[in-house]
């Protein structure tokens, strides 16, 4: 059985609806409710949002796809050492959304951030922007070299907002490499070995700590050394096979500084050689990789005792294999120099809209 309201009974209902709508309209026009108890209330954290209505409407816009994603324009002012890198790979390589990298300096005024490579900045700052910096824009100082290999420029103090560096206390941290969760449960196979200790060096200086240590170590154990100084050049294509064929690799840094742990370590790890490291203290290395994945020269009172340990491990396969157990849990991922700095710096700028300035760059980096 169907029922319907008579015309006489519909009239009071219609009047009631009109009164309710009118009351709500007057209420929201003349009464401004306090919403401080709501998480979306306008505050010092986000003063642009005044009421929950703004959030709700914004959510509806996104749900209806009526509001496009607003890309953050990020300007690469200078390519590191002049080597160009991709400007379109932030999403595909690092899963970073909303970043538009460009090297078009005509977009300077539109850029939310600009990145500068320290080693390419002129001492007189002649190649820095001549236009005033827009108030919203952040300047990012980028450097992957150690303080010993980077000239200090006094004028850089009070110039930048952010730092992009290998150091863990940088705003944007981009180490030379890192360990990530293993993507496969398959057992790692140690490559076949036909060399005991290897070293490939391009920058030779007799006063370097690593050169002095190598000279002493060589008195007690044979080191297959390659590079211009030794007249034994290694082609880039042969580097991986050489590294894999060595039981131990001298991952010696050219200078010793906090967190300065370069690809010399990570290449040895990923190619199946046990790294023997010379660099910052063991404790610093263990902030980046497991302690059982490497041998530190500081673990031994002398180079002679280190040589004896390497010779012992050469004859004790079971103990040698213990240096590879970390492969069950982790894989090695190398950083992409330049591109990764730009992408991660852009992402930082996009996510952190507040004002920030870095006033003591020279003190922080060079001490």
TrEMBL record:
- Similarity remark: Belongs to the glycosyltransferase 10 family.
Q: What is the lineage of its organism?
A: Eukaryota, Metazoa, Chordata, Craniata, Vertebrata
**Pfam families registered for this protein in UniProt:** Glyco_tran_10_N (PF17039), Glyco_transf_10 (PF00852)
Annotated Gene Ontology MF terms? 4-galactosyl-N-acetylglucosaminide 3-alpha-L-fucosyltransferase activity
Kindly list the places in or outside the cell where this protein is found, as annotated in its UniProt entry. Answer: Golgi apparatus, Golgi stack membrane; Golgi apparatus, trans-Golgi network membrane
Q: Please state what the protein is called.
A: Fucosyltransferase
Please give the InterPro entries that the UniProt record associates with this protein.
Glyco_tran_10_C (IPR055270), Glyco_tran_10_N (IPR031481), Glyco_trans_10 (IPR001503), GT10-like_C_sf (IPR038577)
Bilayer topology reads: Single-pass type II membrane protein
Q: Which organism is it from?
A: Chanos chanos (Milkfish)
User: Which reactions appear under catalytic activity for this entry?
Assistant: an alpha-Neu5Ac-(2->3)-beta-D-Gal-(1->4)-beta-D-GlcNAc-(1->3)-beta-D-Gal-(1->4)-beta-D-GlcNAc derivative + GDP-beta-L-fucose = an alpha-Neu5Ac-(2->3)-beta-D-Gal-(1->4)-beta-D-GlcNAc-(1->3)-beta-D-Gal-(1->4)-[alpha-L-Fuc-(1->3)]-beta-D-GlcNAc derivative + GDP + H(+); alpha-D-galactosyl-(1->3)-beta-D-galactosyl-(1->4)-N-acetyl-beta-D-glucosaminyl-(1->3)-beta-D-galactosyl-(1->4)-beta-D-glucosyl-(1<->1')-ceramide + GDP-beta-L-fucose = a neolactoside IV(3)-alpha-Gal,III(3)-alpha-Fuc-nLc4Cer + GDP + H(+); alpha-N-glycoloylneuraminosyl-(2->3)-beta-D-galactosyl-(1->4)-N-acetyl-beta-D-glucosaminyl-(1->3)-beta-D-galactosyl-(1->4)-N-acetyl-beta-D-glucosaminyl-(1->3)-beta-D-galactosyl-(1->4)-beta-D-glucosyl-(1<->1')-ceramide + GDP-beta-L-fucose = alpha-N-glycoloylneuraminosyl-(2->3)-beta-D-galactosyl-(1->4)-N-acetyl-beta-D-glucosaminyl-(1->3)-beta-D-galactosyl-(1->4)-[alpha-L-fucosyl-(1->3)]-N-acetyl-beta-D-glucosaminyl-(1->3)-beta-D-galactosyl-(1->4)-beta-D-glucosyl-(1<->1')-ceramide + GDP + H(+); beta-D-Gal-(1->4)-beta-D-GlcNAc-(1->3)-beta-D-Gal-(1->4)-D-Glc + GDP-beta-L-fucose = beta-D-Gal-(1->4)-[alpha-L-Fuc-(1->3)]-beta-D-GlcNAc-(1->3)-beta-D-Gal-(1->4)-D-Glc + GDP + H(+)
Fucosyltransferase N-terminal domain mapped to chain residues: 72-177
> Pathway listed for it?
Protein modification; protein glycosylation; Glycolipid biosynthesis
What is this enzyme's EC? Answer: 2.4.1.-
Q: Quote the gene name from the UniProt entry.
A: LOC115811226
Mainly localized where? Golgi
